[in-house]
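Input record, target 12 of the design panel.
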């Protein structure tokens, strides 16, 4: 992975400055993929749309900030050395963001997807066998109402959300679709989990438990 310049952003509400990193190039060697759509790749880190200021915990959308400057991380430029780096949101941050007024459908879908991922993360880490976050089922049910587009990505995610809700018949019906060949591995994995009445997030291409 090759880092790009750090961007210095001014938050639209408080006016505080914050830094975010960028990536000039990366790769997915060694990446892990999960049935809920999350990818974990050390050499190609996530680039969250929603971030959190580390000091006042202000949530902000990166595209709604003014870009003040850039700095090269490998050069000794002290002008913005006191500006903190943004934090990635945690589960409670997504829960809080969902209460913000005037959320667009794109923002709500993004937040509900990230809430889902964050709630599944303890399962990914082997800490708990099933997600137990408050509002987990309600979030998935509302996400399902946003996954009604006819495109294959939405349909596959709707099938997976249905599976994790335990609605196996609905999940099986959603998988009856002419997916392109690139979806075959994920579709086969999720279909197998549906047949086994397994409603927990699983790693793609992994051996069955």
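The sequence produced for target 12 reads:
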């Amino acid at each position: 992975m090759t880092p790009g310049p750090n961007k210095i952003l001014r938050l639209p509400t408080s006016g505080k400055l914050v830094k975010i990193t960028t990536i000039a190039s990366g790769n997915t060697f060694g990446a892990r993929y999960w049935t809920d759509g999350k990818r974990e790749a050390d050499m190609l880190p996530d680039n969250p749309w929603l971030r959190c200021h580390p000091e006042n915990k202000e949530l902000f959308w990166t595209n709604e900030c003014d870009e003040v400057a850039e700095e090269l991380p490998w050069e000794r430029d002290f002008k913005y050395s006191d500006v903190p780096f943004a934090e990635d949101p945690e589960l409670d941050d997504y829960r809080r963001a969902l209460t913000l007024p005037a959320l667009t459908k794109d923002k709500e879908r993004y937040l509900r997807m990230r809430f889902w991922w964050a709630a599944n993360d303890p399962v990914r880490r082997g800490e708990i066998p099933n997600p137990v976050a408050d509002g987990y089922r309600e979030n998935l049910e509302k996400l399902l109402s946003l996954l009604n587009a006819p495109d294959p990505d939405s349909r596959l995610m709707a099938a997976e959300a249905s599976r994790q809700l335990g609605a196996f018949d609905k999940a099986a019906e959603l998988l009856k679709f002419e997916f392109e060949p690139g979806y075959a591995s994920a579709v086969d994995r999720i279909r197998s989990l549906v047949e086994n009445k397994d409603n927990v997030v699983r790693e793609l291409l992994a051996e069955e438990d």
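The longest helix spans residues 105-124.
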